[in-house]
Amino acid sequence: MSALIDVKGLDKAFGGVNAVEGLSFSVDAGQIYSVIGPNGAGKTTLFNLITGIYTPTKGEIHLNGESVVGMEPNKLAERGMSRTFQQMQICMNMTALENVMLGRHLQLKSNLLTTLLRLPSLLKDEEDCRDHAIELMKFVGCGEYIESDASAMSYGALKRLEIARALAADPKVILLDEPAAGLNGTETAALEALIKKIAAQGITVVLVEHDMKLVMGISNRLLVLNYGRKLAEGTPEEIRNNPDVIAAYLGG
Amino acid sequence: MLNSFMQMRLKGLVILAVIILILPLFMSNPFHYDMATQIAIIAATVVGLNLLVGYAGQISLGHAGFFGIGAYFSAVMTSNYDWPPLPTLLLAAALVGVIAWIVGRPILKLKGHYLSMATLAVGFIIAIIINNEGWITGGPDGMPVPSFSVFGWELSSFNQYSFLGMEVNGYKAWYFFAGLLLLLAVWVAQNIIDSPIGRALRSVHGSEVAARVVGVDTARYKSLVFVISAVYASLMGSFYAHFTGFITPHIASFEHSIVLITMVVLGGMASTFGVILGAAVLKLLPQVLADFQELEMMMFGLILMLTMIFMPKGLLPTAQKLLKKKMSRKKVEEQA
Amino acid sequence: MFAEFIQYLFTGITIGATYALVALGFTLIYNASHVINFAQGEFLMIGGMATVSLLGMGFPMPVAIVLAVMLAGIIGVALQRFAIAPAKQADVVTLIIITIGASIFIRGIAQLVWGKEYHVMPNFSSDEPIRLFGAVLNSQSFWVLGIGALLVVALVLFFTRTLMGKAILATSMNKDAARLVGIRTQMVLMLAFMLSALLGSMAGVTVAPITFTAYDIGIMLGLKGFVAAALGGLGSGVGAVVGGLLLGVVEAMTAGYISSDYKDAVAFSMILLVLFFMPRGLFGSRVVERV
Fold first, then answer.
1. What residue ranges do the domains of chain B occupy?
2. Of A116, B308, B325, C66, whose CB has the highest number of CB atoms within 10 Å?
3. Rounded CA gap, B145 and B312, in Å?
4. Do A53 and C288 count as a contact with CB atoms less than 8 A apart?
5. With contacts defined as CB-CB under 8 Å, which chain A residues touch C288?
6. Could you read off the pLDDT of B111-156 as tens digits, one per residue?
């Protein structure tokens, strides 16, 4: 099986400081792959590089065998890349449902004439899009917010809403940046179940997360970053027993 | 449920139509009709500008320039070259669309206040050309414009029309025509807002990063809405020229651009009916303040400042919020 | 030929120095608060007009100038304190409209106090023109350039040598961080408005003997300052100065050699060219967007 995401020799420097350095790893399709490491290890930078928000200083990124370095985020979205953010990016000027419908942007044909005159073909598409979005909101556990404005939702619900929006694009891979941050125990348990359900649909999940219990429980493989470099990579079992990781985490 | 927004849109359109129909009961002379017609045409312009400013969050400080091109293209071609008004007006709009695309496409790839600078510049250049090329535009003194006509049927404030057996004055006919234009402008604007294109536009304002990662080509959509809003301005500029029968370069000036964007912000960004209110208020305010003579300018500035400081969301959204609060309080009291 | 060129060049640099000061004012406020202050031009108007009327009351020139500039400074602080600060939650467009409202308000008051007619202000020193390479130069131009240069140097020293100046810089880079290290950001914003009012009014006072002054000169001068700031790259101090001088010179050359009708159009065409081909302006910074 070939890798879905393949990263080779990735470098990113901000004003002379390397946030990511010489990083290589690959994610196979269908996996739950987690990136862990202390604060400032370069996890979010890595996500921003993979999703095209930043352009790498050096290195290669392949998605499904195609080189995608320097590609705009919207081009990557067309190739099946989808993500959430550590600092949530919800459109507060829209309703919750519209946020999810926005996620289906690429699935909708937007023709200016049908839009201006609001022709029946548009209405049909919109109806389908809406139904799909409602389904997704229920899937992530936001069923009670279908009629709400995004600005009226709780923090935990917004985090799930962002996942629903990311799923709406029918992605091949979804990158979740600290989905459990700020959630309580019950919410985290629900999130764990949700991630498993997503993976069960055949969507590859890449995760940045601090909650070790969550990460160790659901990941197929893990990548440990420290100061922008790879400290270790392997199965949860291998990571747990890796002396470097233990040293870094226990401050040895 | 699905149609709550659709119902809201329809309700808005119906209310607007009713207002347009009822207003004549309160208007007694041609001057009132003239004012109301101007307000309707400007309001339609601002409804288009709101798509850009209110929904997509981009600032244009040169929309009067596009309004001016529409007006002067129609005026010059119909009076100097005897072109028929309707095709001329459409051609002007197409021309403006192309200009807006050429300007907007490279600029809207950038983030920040660049569109405001570019539109300011474009607006000024248009105004300067209109002012200086007096041989064709009449220069600062302005120029007359023939009345609007389609298929030999002429719409003029000075004509008499009979409609379903009723005698209708020309200025009244223009008023209803302008009302129809406004309704059409609102309908189209709402169609855009409540569509995949509209969602993409609003997401640019809400979170540009989110928009990009779900696949929205933000630069393309920003350019698109810029072109649409410019076309709105051009069309309404043409109608305005035909209606007033005489235009001066002031309609293309920076001051007029500022007035237009102020109408959007004052009435309520991202509120289609709010900006119509904004247009009406800003058109009528100088009439009211004219009685204060030399205090007029100072009071205008003061009112503008205070409204924006205390109602930063604009008139209509603020009023709606107050109303909602009051109603929910009432509900609580009733339940208690 | 050469004398003509020198004449235009000098005229351009003189008016350009004025633009540069206004552009610096824009830059200061933009960096500190991200507001484009469209009332900037009114500070020039206040500087010139207040000086003229204080001179009329019999004050000696230096006293009149100091008082006029102080008046502008107070108005700058008041603008921030009473118009911008209360609306700090508002959208950027709303803030811009507030500054436009403020500029109309200030202009309205000026019209009430000083009337609509043009006012003439005497030169700082002799009215005798100075001859250089065959060109005839207004002595006031030297004042404009000298004072402009002095102000720029003072500004540089202020930002690099004083705690206050560094506090403003820190606030413009990161407001939250500045607050964390104990900088009172509200004070800093007020200071930024005051400084830019001082710069604007000084420019207004020095250029008034050349251009005359009236209640409504602020609009165009303010806009030209904005154009200069945009040319240089909004937010860059060096850019503001270079942008101002460049704009002044190009304008004067266009007026001299091509057509004075289109001198304003050239200024605005320059903005478009810069935006198309070097979008960050001549000296604008490259900002990485953070997620």
1. 4-335
2. B308
3. 39
4. no
5. 14, 54
6. 767 888 889 999 999 999 999 999 999 999 999 999 998 877 788 8
State the nearest Cα–Cα gap between A100 and chain B, in angstroms: 10
Chain A residues closer than 8 Å to C289 by CB: 53
Burial bucket for residue B302 (CB in 10 Å: 0-12, 13-18, 19+): middle
A51 and B213 in contact by Cβ < 8 A? yes
Residue B270 tokens, joined: 């991202």
| Residue A132 touches partner B, C-beta closer than 8 Å | no
Tens digit of each residue's pLDDT (9 = 90 or more) over B173-223: 999 999 999 999 999 999 999 899 999 999 998 898 999 999 999 999 999
> Best mutation site among B6, B7, B199 for testing chain A: the one with the most A CBs within 10 Å?
B199
ipTM value of the model? 0.88
Q: By C-alpha distance, which of C108, C107, C75 is closest to B298? A: C108
Geometric angle at alpha carbon A92, from C82 and A106, rounded to 5°: 140
For chains A and B, count residue pairs whose Cβ atoms are closer than 8 Å. Answer: 104
C231-257 pLDDT, tens digit per residue, is 888 778 888 999 999 999 999 999 989
Fold of C2-277: ABC transporter involved in vitamin B12 uptake, BtuC (1.10.3470)
The reply to whether A54 touches chain C by the CB within 8 Å rule is yes
Asked if the C-beta of C93 comes within 8 angstroms of chain A's C-beta atoms, the answer is no
Residues forming beta bridges with residue A63, ordered by sequence position: A5, A66
Q: Nearest chain C Cα to A14, which residue?
A: C288
Task: Compute the nearest-CA separation of B243 from chain C (Å).
Answer: 29
The H or E element that residue B29 is part of is: none
Closest-approach residue (CA) in chain A for B217: A74
Q: Which residues contact B73 (CB under 8 A, 6 or more apart)?
A: B88, B91, B92, B95, B234, B238
Instruction: Select from C102, C111, C272 the Cβ nearest to the Cβ of B294.
Output: C111
The residue with tokens 């993976």 is: A199
Summarised one tens digit per residue, pLDDT across range C147-170 is: 999 999 998 898 888 888 888 888
Q: Is A94 on the interface with B (CB under 8 A)?
A: yes
Mean pLDDT of the residues in chain A: 90
Q: Quick one: pLDDT band at residue B5, thresholds 50, 70, 90?
A: low
Residue of A108, A118, A127 to mutate for B, most B C-beta atoms under 10 A = A118
Taking the C-alpha atoms of residue B189 and residue B175, their distance in angstroms, rounded to an integer, is 21
Minimal CA separation from C225 to chain B, in Å: 12
Q: In this structure, what token pair is assigned to residue B99?
A: 């200009």
Contact residues on chain A for C89, CB-CB shorter than 8 A: none
Query: What pairing do the DSSP bridges indicate for beta strands B153-155 and B148-150?
Result: antiparallel
Q: Which pLDDT score is estimated for C161?
A: 87
* Residues 6+ positions from B10 with CB-CB distance below 8 Å: none
- CA–CA separation, C241 and C251 (whole Å): 15
Q: Match domain A1-80+171-252 to its CATH number in 3.40.50.300, 3.40.50.150, 3.60.70.12, 3.30.420.10.
A: 3.40.50.300
> In sequence order, which residues have a C-beta less than 8 Å from that of residue C179 and are 6 or more positions away?
C185
- Average pLDDT of chain B to the nearest whole number: 90
For A52, B86, B239, B286, C262, the CA distances from B247, given in Å and listed in that order, are 50, 18, 11, 19, 22
**Domain range list for chain A:** 1-80+171-252, 90-170
Spans of all domains in chain C: 2-277
Q: Give yes or no for residue B298 having a pLDDT over 60.
A: yes
Architecture, CATH, for domain B4-335: Orthogonal Bundle (1.10)
The residue ranking higher by pLDDT, B297 or B126, is: B126
